[in-house]
Input
Amino acid sequence: MSKLAMVTGISGQDGAYLARLLLEKGYRVVGAMRRNSSTTLGRLAELGIEQDVEITDFELLEDSNIRRTIERLKPDEIYNLAAQSFVGSSFEQPLYTAEVDACGVTRLLEAIRAVGSTSIRFYQASTSEMFGKVHETPQRETTPFHPRSPYGVAKLYAHWITVNYRESYGMHATSGILFNHESPLRGREFVTRKITLALSRVKHGKLDAVEVGNLDAKRDWGFAGDYVEGMWRMLQQDTAGDYVLATGETHPVREFLTLAGAALGFDLVFEGSGVAERAIDRKSGKVVARVNEKFFRPAEVDLLLGDPAKAEKTLGWTRKLGFRDLVTAMAEADDRRVSTGQLSF
Ligand code: NAP
Ligand code: GDP
Output
């Protein structure tokens, strides 16, 4: 009998890569997904697995739906990837973000508790945004938290409720504290994909220039395909725990812009400072990126840099794709999509 994995947030970036990994490992994969007026399985289609994943209706706001789904499926493993995952939106929708990202996790844990099964293994998608205004560098499992956005605050609640259900009820509930991870399947609003898509449009004459916010922010950016392997390894441990997944490198947004530009044939030089800063292509003299303060955040996370030592040692987790190759893969994917007009997500 193959194991049954329930993956919430199947239509998102991580859901697609995790589903592919679990299918390769012989799992039966049920993707839990909220109803939408349009088909949003473009990422699964891009990985060629759209037909291999079973889909079930799932909404993190709806307690009864969550309970029925878990009672019916009785999954071996639940990966909770569903969330309002964009920091920027969380400042505009703080209550909704809390309902989904914080209370939604309690609904799931309560449903697992209600079916009375201690054999279900639960993964919670926690985030380096919980470190926020960092108290030490690099950040690891023991670093104190100081979130800087309603998203970070909601995810911190979700982290602690996961720990609490592990300690209170002996549940196999794990919190993966993942640093930013990107891919050609990343959502368009995140700075990496925003840059690769916009610069591809600039290259093909479909956009004048990309407007961005804080170019000084530094992130520890890894490849999503590597990170889902870490999630799976966490749930194969005999005991549940908390694990940081990170690369141990940090890069400013400005560097991502430069490398993405290079992959698309631009030779970028930066001029000016603050809101007047611009990126100019040396070859054409054209401004291809400029700062717009509307993308600044009310409170910023200036620097994230993770220490993945525990995951490397305990889980044997390693990474296959480095930063430069990741940027290039994202730029090339968007270049191809823009030139063929095939942009489904
Ligand atoms: P993503 O692409 O934004 O996917 C989020 C998923 O959650 C989508 O499938 C979305 O469905 C679903 N969802 C949103 N609200 C829901 C609700 N109320 N009920 C049911 N489903 C809902 O995010 P991702 O990058 O794959 O990230 C996966 C998880 O890891 C998220 O929890 C995120 O916060 C966390 N995380 C991500 C990173 C990162 O760098 N990627 C780092 C740390 C933690 P729709 O398609 O319908 O919107
Ligand atoms: P986050 O780390 O989850 O907030 O991931 P994002 O990709 O949304 O943002 C990463 C960093 O890039 C943050 O410090 C942002 O302030 C910064 N940033 C700079 N310009 C932009 C922009 O235009 N869009 C986004 N999303 N972030 C930007």
The chain is about 40% helix and 20% strand. Residues 8-9, 11-15, 34, 36, 40, 58-61, 81-85, 100, 125, 127, 178, 180-181, 187 surround NAP (ligand 1) (CB under 6 Å). The radius of gyration is 20 Å.
